[in-house]
Write a structure and sequence with these properties.
5 helices, 104 residues, 65% helix, mainly alpha, 2 domains
Length: 104
């Protein structure tokens, strides 16, 4: 018997998982999810890489938007330096791009 007994959304999602990665979206009808999974499996490797690149670009844009809200006075270059710090870690970002000014 499940310890969570399906009371919260996360546990319900886990209870639908059957071990073969066939349940990805708990809010999607199984028939629609099956079509999506089939299309993803049939996609050529170049298309899958393109989709990953698009997702990465979307995440980068979201992070830059969040950084702009956190640092409204920062220049474009400073925002990209903050992004580098998040993506690379501060040590490597400092080596590659230098340190950030104290007032940003």
């Amino acid at each position: 018997m499940s310890a969570c007994r399906g009371k919260n959304r996360h546990c319900q999602t886990l209870s639908r998982y059957n071990g073969d990665m066939s349940t990805l979206f708990p809010d999607t009808r199984p028939e629609a999810e099956a079509v999506l999974i089939r299309l993803l499996r049939e996609a050529p490797p170049w298309r899958k890489l393109e989709m990953v690149d698009q997702l990465n670009q979307s995440v980068k844009l979201l992070v830059l938007t969040g950084l702009q809200q956190r640092f409204p006075a920062a220049s474009e270059a400073q925002l990209h330096r903050h992004l580098a710090g998040l993506l690379l870690g501060e040590d490597l970002a400092c080596k590659a791009y230098g340190t950030l000014p104290e007032d940003v």
